[in-house]
Amino acid sequence: MSHLLTARPPSRRLLAALVLAAAFLGLGAPVAGAHAEHEGQLPVVDVVEVSGFLDPVLVGMMADTLESLDPSETVALVFQVDSTASVVSDSEILRLARLIVGSEVTVSFWVGPSGARATGPIAQLVVLGDDIGIAPGARLGSFGDPIQGVAELGALLATDALADLRDATVGYDEAVRRGIARPAPVLLEQLAGVPGFEVETMVGEDGETIQPVTTTRFRQLDVVDQFFHTVASPAVTYLLLLIGMGLLLFELYTAGVGIAGAIGAGCFLLSTYGLGVLPARGWAVALLVVAMLAYAIDVQAGVPRLWSGIGTVTLVAGSVFLFDGPSFSWITLLVGVVGMVMAMVGGMPTMVRTRFSTPTIGREWMIGETGSAVERLAPNGTVTVREAVWRATTNRATPLEPGDDIRVVAVDGLWLEVEPIDGAARDYRRRDGGS
User: Fold this and answer.
1) What angle do CA 414, 419, 425 make, to 5 degrees?
2) Which of 297, 326, 355 is the last residue of a domain?
3) Any residues with CB less than 8 A from the CB of 311 and at least 6 apart, and which?
4) CATH, residue 404
5) Does the residue 340 lie in any domain?
6) HEC string of 88-109?
7) Who is most buried in 15, 58, 64, 193, counting CB within 10 A?
8) CA torsion 241→247→248→250, rounded to 10°?
9) Is the distance from CB of 74 to CB of 31 less than 8 angstroms?
10) Are residues 350 and 398 in the same domain?
11) Gyration radius of the chain over CA positions
12) How many domains does the chain have?
């Protein structure tokens, strides 16, 4: 059923290129309304966009479409491909491969538009198709290990045209030269080259133009499926995880449950779906959790110190090694790491301090509590009260030294006002007996 293509004369493609914009208006509707004058059921060509990783949602839609094809109604099925990896089991890819090979309807693949990629398992499915087109700027290859269970695939990947593409890709010119695919700069040209797709030539003042006759029907994921397909991409899952944990951490320092907590919980739950679908490393996820806990310690203290450094190191390590195989770009990594560091080191203490900018914040119980100075207060520093670290200021001119016992006398936002337990009633500016 599958075959490698030979180059075709470009005359029809050149004519079609003259009217791409106008013709595309007729392709934009789910079911084209042109040529209504034809009586009876018109044959259709189904177009399905395959974009992003092959996840359960996308693979399920592809399989359902293949299984529902009716040869009496459908001329061909065209998959528009821009995919570089798969996160489903080999058995699911094998199922798709068998449906493509056994289809009674022509199955065509278009690697486009410009910039599209077809690598890994999807590339193996592409070469199983009856018809393959490629756009300038697109690439095809990096097949990897062949799918076991499809005898035809092994023979195809061993041909001269494909044998050296196990780990390499070819672009538009090379794919056409080798006969792997035919030129198809845009979708209309791909459709025009599909067996059974009819066009008609229109003669006007500007010369001859080509218009599609066969109805084109676009199939796509519904809103819910598209949403979860987007969530299951590595970049979105990673950012949702960081945002969710960051907002939940912020909510820990607020009075009651607010909008930040609700959004954070929603983001975190969505990220768990992505982590379940994608090949995430458990220990890398644990590193990201440790990073949040480390940041929390210094947010409590109100000043970035050692724990902020530990949090940043674990955040970077967890981010880099989060996924085994498919991952995200360095831009996503930079946005996630830099954004989280800025939020936890600079933004979080400020937001929390603003939230607690009034004296009445439900922490009056701390007044009268005792503790000890962690570092020198002159007059600002940190203290521990009930084993928690707080930013504090002393109401005495004489600084407190590390280890000195203190008593909380007032609460001002996230800051504690403290005094030394020993000699608290004494003005230390007069300790030398001066007036």
Assistant:
1) 145
2) 355
3) 290, 291, 292, 293, 294, 295, 298, 344
4) 2.40.50.140
5) yes
6) CCHHHHHHHHHHHHCCCCEEEE
7) 58
8) 140
9) no
10) no
11) 32
12) 3
18 with 89, same domain: the answer is yes
* Helix, coil or strand: residue 182: strand
| DSSP per residue, 202-250 | EEETTEEEEEE-SEEEEE---HHHHHHHHHTSHHHHHHHHHHHHHHHHH
Last residue of a domain, one of 355, 390, 407: 355
Q: Is the peptide bond before 113 cis (omega within 30 degrees of 0)?
A: yes
Burial class (CB in 10 A: 0-12, 13-18, 19+), 131: buried
Structural domain of 344: 233-355
Whether 215 and 326 share a structural domain: no
The answer to whether residue 399 is domain-embedded is yes
Asked if residue 1 belongs to a domain, the reply is no
Please tell me whether residues 262 and 325 are part of one structural domain: yes
> For residues 165 and 141, is the Cβ–Cβ distance under 8 A?
yes
Q: Is residue 6 included in any domain, yes or no?
A: no
Q: In the numeric block, which tokens belong to residue 212?
A: 């599609």
CB 213 within 8 A of CB 200: yes
* Distance, CA of 280 to CA of 283 (rounded, Å): 9
State whether 171 and 273 are in the same domain: no
Q: Assess whether 59 and 195 both reside in one domain.
A: yes
Contact (CB, 8 A) for 399 and 382: no
Are the C-beta atoms of 369 and 386 separated by less than 8 Å?
Answer: yes
Distance, in Å, from the CA atom of 323 to the CA atom of 233, rounded to the nearest integer, reads 11
| Tens of pLDDT, residue by residue, the chain (435 residues) | 445 554 344 443 433 333 333 333 344 444 333 333 333 457 899 999 999 999 999 999 999 999 999 999 999 999 999 999 999 999 999 999 999 999 999 999 999 999 999 999 999 999 999 999 999 999 999 999 888 888 778 888 888 889 999 999 999 999 999 999 999 999 989 999 998 888 887 777 777 777 888 899 998 898 999 999 999 999 999 999 999 999 888 887 765 557 888 899 999 999 999 999 999 999 999 999 999 999 988 777 667 788 889 999 999 999 999 998 777 889 999 999 999 998 888 777 666 655 554 444 456 677 888 888 888 888 888 888 887 778 888 866 667 888 888 888 888 766 888 888 876 544 444 444 444
On whether both 200 and 328 belong to a single domain, the answer is: no
